Prior knowledge:
Largest sheet: 7 strands, mixed
Oligomer: single chain
Strand order of the largest sheet: 5-4-3-6-7-9-8
Strand content: 25-35%
Mean pLDDT: 92
Structural class: alpha/beta
Number of strands: 9
Helix content: 10-25%
Distance between the termini: 54 Å
Amino acid sequence: MTLRIRYQTLEFPKVDIHLRSLWDKQQFDDVDEAAEKVGVAPSSWAFSGVIWPSGHVLAHLMGDFPIAGKRILEVGCGLGLASLLLNTRKADITATDHNPAAGGFLAQNTQLNASATIPFIRAGWADTDSELGQFDLIIGSDLLYEPNHVELLCGFMHRHAKRDCEVIMVEGGRGYHNKFGEALEACGFSGSINRPQNTPYLTKPFTGYVLRYQRST
């Protein structure tokens, strides 16, 4: 099957982001079985190559979010829309995803936008030996698909969070937002969970939540 690709431009208040993505979630092209070897199921391979509403919400949140002096990590970046938006603001952004294909999409899209290279490190949430280091701000969208993801993701963020750190996550409405908030609180964070406001850029009403948590000394 020939891999179908979509090109589109997403408009933000201060910038346009040109995006190369898969045509839909039915596309598949795991070259040399690289994704399957690290545990990415064929049924979910395409998830990293399409735009999700929660990723769109996260990118809009990053349009004017304070970034000065912050080292930022996008977890489960997929197409890395938020990373691409932050890159236009000259942010110190690093992206990571379990699927190695995400790194290829990110590199192609930074070139498409004539932007600086965004560092990408492939890492799973259970990995304890990645080269990521620690960050001042950790962001992510639509990451919680299964009950065990709450503990895995929180542990991953905890390992890569500086003592003073913010977490901004957009949850896609799968019902794990409260449990994840409780897990962050157990790691010393405090914050809030709310519905996002003003999302006219989405074609349908958004049913998810925005989690904003912070830990400080």
